[in-house]
Amino acid sequence: MAELMKLHYEVNGDDFTRAGETSSKVKKTLNQLGFNPEVVRKVAIAMYEGEINMVIHADGGEIDVAIAPEKITVVMKDVGPGIPDLDMAMTEGFSTADHSVRELGFGAGMGLPNMKKYSDGLNIETELGKGTTVTLEFNA
Ligand SMILES: Nc1ncnc2c1ncn2[C@@H]1O[C@H](COP(=O)(O)OP(=O)(O)O)[C@@H](O)[C@H]1O
Ligand SMILES: [Mg+2]
């Protein structure tokens, strides 16, 4: 593969049926490039959670993926409401998702904890009323 592959995606904020499409596409690409299945699985799980968060908490956003032989970086940027208390948000089971979202099967409060668990680096920059940028890093 080339030294560095860059992918860019727009995540639609109001379409639950398409949430997860971007992580599926990246998973497929990483598999085609021959990355270790365990690494691909981690990227897919963590990225899926971030993508769902963009849809249910932030009205969508943009995802940039940089794929290098040794490292995969995923930057997920939204212009949503921001996260008021990051420590709280990182707590297992904590969720602000409302009833209608829970009925669709989202809002278990495990997204951010799992993004930390399945990545080799999680960085969250967030500002109230401005948005949130989540960066995930994976060692390939
Ligand atoms: N991109 C985001 N923008 C605003 N708030 C977010 C975002 N991602 C996560 N949050 C907040 O952090 C909480 C915890 O996120 P998460 O662990 O994924 O649980 P869940 O999505 O099931 O609620 C969410 O309920 C929400 O309040
Ligand atoms: Mg979530």
Task: Note the topology.
Layout: E1 5-12, H1 21-32, H2 37-58, E2 60-67, E3 71-78, H3 86-89, H4 99-103, H5 111-118, E4 121-127, E5 131-139
Antiparallel strand pairs: 1-2, 2-3, 3-5, 4-5
The site of magnesium ion (MG) has 4 residues, from helix 2.
Task: Please provide a brief summary of the model.
The protein is α+β, with helices and mostly antiparallel strands and 140 residues long. It contains 5 helices and 5 strands; from the N terminus they run βααββαααββ. It has a 5-stranded antiparallel sheet with strand order 1-2-3-5-4, with helices on one face.
Q: What does this protein look like?
A:
This protein has 140 residues and is of the alpha+beta class. It has a single domain (5-139), classed as Heat Shock Protein 90. It has helices spanning 21-32, 37-58, 86-89, 99-103, 111-118; strands at 5-12, 60-67, 71-78, 121-127, 131-139. The chain has a five-stranded antiparallel β-sheet with strand order 1-2-3-5-4, with helices on one face. Strand 4 (121-127) and strand 5 (131-139) form a beta hairpin. Helix 1 (21-32) runs antiparallel to helix 2 and helix 2 packs antiparallel against helix 5. 31% of the residues are buried. Bound molecules: adenosine-5'-diphosphate and magnesium ion (MG). Magnesium ion binds at residues 49, 52-53, 111.
